[in-house]
Amino acid sequence: MYEAVIDTRGQKCPQPFVEMVKAFMKMGGRGRVRILTDDETCKTFIPDYGKDLDFNLVSIEDKGGYYEIVMSKEDGGS
């Protein structure tokens, strides 16, 4: 499984979501992306809007000062 880590700390949503979508596109539309963000809004924005694009929430962890949101997609479909 392909995996990417994107550090979007300092960026406000929806920019981390946009970066996540770009990362999935580079991986052929499937795999797993770890998004590092310090914008608390992203904890709900990314899973909610990701669901509309068939992305799955794997986990959200508070890392002390930032969050790690892991999203996955199993196939290249939309």
Question: Your description of this structure?
Answer:
The chain is an alpha+beta fold and 78 residues long. It has helices at residues 15-26, 42-52; strands at residues 3-7, 31-37, 56-62, 67-73. It has a four-stranded mixed β-sheet with strand order 1-2-4-3, covered by helices on one side. The protein starts with a strand and ends in a 5-residue tail after the last strand. 23% of the residues are buried.
Radius of gyration equals 11 Å
Low-confidence stretches: none
The count of DSSP E runs of length 2 or more, i.e. the number of strands, is 4
SSE string: EHEHEE
Helix run count: 2
Strand content: 25-35%
| Total domain count | 1
What would CATH call the architecture? 2-Layer Sandwich
Choose one word for the global shape: globular
Instruction: Write down the overall mean pLDDT.
Output: 93
Largest sheet: 4 strands, mixed
Distance between the termini: 18 Å
Q: Percentage of helical residues?
A: 25-40%
**CATH superfamily membership:** TusA-like domain
CATH topology: Translation Initiation Factor IF3
List keywords for this structure.
78 residues; alpha+beta; Translation Initiation Factor IF3; four-stranded mixed beta sheet
Entry summary:
By secondary structure, the chain is α+β, with helices and mostly antiparallel strands. It has two helices and four strands; from the N terminus they run E-H-E-H-E-E. The protein has a single domain (3-73), classed as TusA-like domain (Translation Initiation Factor IF3, 2-Layer Sandwich).
